[in-house]
Design a protein that fits this description.
The chain has one helix spanning about 1-15; strands at about 20-25, 30, 80, 85-90, 95-100, 105-115, 120-125, 125-135, 145-150, 155-165. With about 170 residues, it is mainly β. The protein has a domain at about 80-165. It is extended and about 95 Å long.
């Protein structure tokens, strides 16, 4: 038992007395110097080459992966136009937007209603009635598939909508 205790005391004496060596980048071995250096926190490195004077904020990564193409906006559910005065209505989902060059755009929450012969978009203070039949916009030789009438707080507008058939050569 005494022998074991003496061995335990002798072990630490034999360990750590050898000088530590390090090998530098050129492969040269040398004695390591024990140096106490304070620990100083460093700011996080940027993705640039390390020169913080040229670090520039990087733009956010796109939500679309490189393998997919960016989606284009969905076409409107319905589009109508009119002249004298000029106006346009675009319906997307449950929203109709009435645009006129002399007034700010008006947005209406609408619901679709159909009786089999005509289609209507109805909202609070807005009604757009659509009936099938050729319609000329009065400005070009193009024909549209539908006749459109809009009633809203500022009056009634008439025009064309649906599918536009290009100049038929009339």
């Amino acid at each position: 038992m005494r022998l074991a205790a003496l061995l335990l005391l002798a072990l630490p004496v034999g360990c750590g007395d050898e000088p530590k060596t390090v090998v530098n980048a050129a492969g040269i071995e040398r004695k390591a110097d024990a140096v106490r250096a304070p620990v100083v926190p460093e700011p996080a490195k940027s993705d640039t080459d390390g020169d913080r004077s040229t670090a520039v904020a990087q733009p956010a990564k796109p939500l679309v992966s490189r393998g997919t193409s960016p989606s284009s906006p969905a076409p409107p559910d319905y589009r109508a136009i009119g002249t004298e005065p000029f106006w346009a209505v675009t319906v997307r989902g449950a929203t109709a937007i009435l645009e006129r060059p002399d007034a700010p755009a008006l947005r209406y929450s609408v619901r679709e209603d159909s009786d089999g012969t005509s289609l209507r978009y109805l909202g609070d203070g807005f009604t757009m009635a659509i009936s099938e039949g050729p319609c000329s916009d009065g400005m070009s030789d193009a024909l549209w598939s539908d006749r459109v009438q809009i009633a809203f707080a500022q009056g009634v507008l008439k025009g064309c909508g649906g599918i536009r058939e290009e100049d038929r050569g009339f």
